[in-house]
Amino acid sequence: MKSNAARVPVILSGGVGSRLWPVSREAHPKPFMRLADGRSLLQKTFLRLAALPGIDEVLTVTNRELYFKTGDDYREVNATGLPLGFILEPCGRNTAPAIAAAALYAAERFGGESVLVILPADHLVADQAAFAEAVDRAARLAGEGWLATFGIRPDYPETGYGYIEIDNSENLIPQSAAGAWRVRRFVEKPDTELAHRYVESGCHLWNSGMFCFRADRVIEEMQACAPDVVVAVQACLSASRRTSGDKLHSVELSRETFEQVPDISIDYALMEKSARVAVAPCDIGWNDIGSWTAIGDLTEPDRAGNRVLGEAVLHDVSNCYIQSEERLVGAVGVDNLVIVDTPDALLVAGRDSVQDVKNIVGQLRLAGHETYRLHRTVHRPWGTYTVLEEGRGFKIKRIEVKPGASLSLQMHHHRSEHWVVVSGMAKVVNGERELYVSTNESTFIPAGHKHRLENPGVVELVMIEVQSGEYLGEDDIVRFEDVYGRC
Questions:
Q1: Whether pLDDT at 168 is above 90
Q2: pLDDT for residue 1
Q3: Residue 126 has pLDDT above 90, yes or no
Q4: Which domains does the chain carry?
Q5: pLDDT greater than 80 at residue 175
Q6: What is the mean pLDDT of residues 336-356?
Q7: Using CA atoms, how far apart are residues 156 and 248, in angstroms rounded to an integer?
Q8: What would the mean pLDDT of 368-383 be, rounded to a whole number?
Q9: pLDDT for 454 beyond 90
């Protein structure tokens, strides 16, 4: 690999994390979960990559609906103003199309020799120094034309991970990447007995889902192993909208063409087929945070084995994980439970059954229940809204609008709205009128009226919205103009 080859970190931020409901939801997925230190998994991933030497840009592949939320998270931690790139997907199509799009983007912007370091957005790595060393080894492999993956040395027989079986008959390229091995095969999540055998064999590593390869090399290999993916993604990129600004580049993938892209993982499409796959074993303090048990393990237990995040009063309780955002939790005479309380949903699960939480999400989705998708507080590009109360024919929201931000010019068919300003100043379009509404003042917007809400000030605008009507769903909205491109 030439020393001047660009190193481009790629963050894949597409999963929902249904096993971590009720905190992880479709509109607020697992990468945005805040841990005890106040930082999200996405922010931790960004900082991990930003700390590597020689970074030209951090590229994120995410859903179009999460673009502004992702930007908000990055602004909190991107102190050095590292350039950002975004590939915005209109819908999920798994990791192979996402990585193909990232490779084609990097080859175009930085050249085919650029080295991609690909990480999921929702994992933890405790040892930054060991991670940086593993990336250096993987980058040397990539420079030799290998498709490198990061294998985690297992310290217990985990049944929730896939495994990588190494070919230990031949150390791979010892002069440039000592300790790396050719991959013999990828294996699916094993049962308990098989997992024990994998750990005892010394020839199996956990499949971390992290990769490193040259942009041109992965494109060539995908053209050989999954040509339909490359062709479809190339067509999609050609039809997509691109924008560039100060240290910001984005590609908004065309929905019409992206929906035709095969839905397939990078393991199935490429890694299991290519003869040029190598693995760099590493001990980096890796955790994929795949369940509430994994979240609980991040908190120190008390003498009874309980781990508590929030406020709780316990009597005769042992080996439980309890998390509450707002309310006090009281527990009596229980053992081995997970209790997670949010403002609008409560999870109670046996610790041995946390992998099955996704089944609750599936039932909620089939029933059309909003809690599979939204929290009571919903983030929008302009700010947030919180549903305070709702009932038959009415809904009450607390709306916060960032300084200088504006909602779309819109109209509702089935509901009217009464806006009361609590603090700040609102600039309002109400039908044909444009007016300013100050603290303790209000305005009424009948159904069918075009309207817009804007914060022209330098402090946050807070207001109460009272909706009334025969239908109060969030999909009763017609947008005419929108600064965030949502029309």
A1: no
A2: 39
A3: yes
A4: 7-287 (3.90.550.10), 292-357 (no CATH), 377-481 (2.60.120.10)
A5: no
A6: 96
A7: 42
A8: 93
A9: yes
What single-letter amino acid sits at 167?
A: D
How many whole angstroms separate alpha carbon 278 and alpha carbon 137?
11
Residue 108 identity (one-letter amino acid): E
How many angstroms separate the CA atoms of 251 and 246, rounded? 15
Percent of the chain exceeding pLDDT 90 equals: 87
pTM equals: 0.91
